[in-house]
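U., I forgot to send this yesterday:
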Amino acid sequence: MAINKEDLRIVFMGTPEFAVESLKILVENKYNVVGVVTVR
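Result:
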C-alpha cells in the first residue's frame, strides 16, 4: 500500500535559518503542512 502525499498531515519543526528552504519545497509541492513550529 503506497502513501500519497495528499494523505499526509505534516507538522514541520525547524530553526528558521535552516528550515525555510525545506518548508518552501514542501509547500510548493503541495504537501499538506498543517502546522509549523519554530524557535527564535
